[in-house]
Amino acid sequence: MNAKSALAATPVEQEQLLEIARVVLAMLGEKDIRLKQHAERVANLCAHFCENAGILRDDDLLHIYLAGLLHDTGYISIPREVLKKAPPLSDEETLLVKKHPVVGVQILSHHQRLEALLPMVRHHHEAFDGSGYPDKKQGEEIPLGARLLHLFDCFDGLVSDDRGAQGMTADEALAVIQKKAGQEFDPGLVPTFIQFMESNAGKAEDFLLKKQAASVKQTFSDILQKFSAGKIVPPAMPQVVFELRNMIKRQASSVKDVSATLEKDPVISLRLISVAKSPVYKGYGDVKSVQAAVPRLGFKETLSIVVAISNKSLYEVKQPQFRVTLDKMWGHSLACAYASKLIAQSLALGDPETIFLMGLVHDVGKVLLLRAFAELPQEKSFDFATVMTAIQEAHQSIGNILLKRWGFGNEFSGVVSLHEGANFSSQTNQEILVVHLANMLTRKMGLSFFEWDGKDLAEVSSAQLLGLSSEAIGQIEEKVKEIIKDVAHLF
Fold first, then answer.
1. What are the tens digits of pLDDT across the range 207-223?
2. Residue 128 and residue 7: Cα distance in Å, rounded?
């Protein structure tokens, strides 16, 4: 196989080739779902083997993977009743089945970019001693890719239940292949094949997803390095937020002072007024100005809302394919913030507004990573779950860097670093426990990218350490739902 073969393609062209393979697999699946499943197992195992053993690399790995998916394309032409008939087949039916490599090539030859795969598809039933079909090629006359596919095709056929017959165990199948080394199978490949299958235990992990996961993980590692080195400029917190924080720290500050600072930013001022007018912050009289909003909310709650308003801009991107994801991230962060605050209030903790902010920014690293990823040239589609897994692994470091640049203290870093935690104890800071529980609560509410496992939230370690009952958590959940309904659209 040659890495410079006609199949060498750009990422966009590779995606087109994979789409052709998906169409063929769908057609095979309509004939018999076992054909589709077989092709996927052969493709994945063969590609993993070739990569693991160093037999193929780069474009040739994609070639063998695609050939594995497409090797049984010719079965599309065989009637269902023949495919599902228990052996023995008639001579006519056997001949029909044996034609499938040639028919597969005829079907695939209509796609010019698949030309390099055709020899592998045509010859994947050739035997090393020349007794195979359709051309009775022998030894190294048989393309390497076809010799490789023949091993995995036969192994999967031996271990799979087929038309009422129970398949062999993996050990039994490997013994058969060992016995036929030099006859049916390439004797130079069999020992490495057996070693791989014994260590792999027959697991057919998705080859492309694994490669994509490694690529995405490296991408996020590069983003983190550039961010740490200052090559990626992080979004700045509006100046009005820093001025407001400093002003609130001064005990002599008045409502007029705070209002004058906020009014420097008309957008923040208007949104603050809208939030203050919502049912969540209802009070006496209408709120038509910042000076009326501040006393209704209080200084600390005003700061919390202003930070939330400022943070909302982080969740906006130009690329439409990422907007839904970032909108969901915003809904999760805002719900976690209010849940954290309500939990803190129910426990009479000292500063619920600071805990609100901790809940708000606990996942800010995920937002930055997804924004940076969205700005990269998207030459091919990525599996969403793969991208989110990579973000999950990398977000804490970048979140901490950003919070420090924004002037948030070590207590915020602790929450970002440990809110996912699994090893909480009575020594764990209550703020971390609160945000963890709030995070789990949003998961239960469906405002998360993670599925809820259905168990009682009171059984979660953070809830037990905080001493919150199922009833108390349920009441908090209902309040969070009401708040999000009333204010989420106002930020």
1. 988 888 888 888 888 88
2. 26
